[in-house]
Please model this.
Amino acid sequence: MSALLRSFRPVINQDECRKCGLCYTYCPEGSIANIDGNYAVDYRHCKGCGVCSNECPVKAITMDREKAGE
Ligand code: SF4
Ligand code: SF4
Model:
């Protein structure tokens, strides 16, 4: 999946994240990885659907608009 087909990308604020794993559990694309207890988005597969952002109980995931050319 090319990032060009995605209008928004989820960005995890690691300072706000409570490591609950809900984003990891609910992502329909399996695009959130648990790396040594920290959660990170795999942008190669993320579709930008926003499910992770909606499910995060502390609103630690913002959906940022993709910039052209990135
Ligand atoms: S935006 Fe959708 S596809 Fe991307 S990480 Fe979040 S839940 Fe997964
Ligand atoms: S749902 Fe939110 S608080 Fe929980 S692991 Fe994901 S980013 Fe962190």
Observations:
- The pocket of iron/sulfur cluster (ligand 1) is lined by residues 10, 27, 29, 31-32, 41, 46-52 (CB under 6 Å).
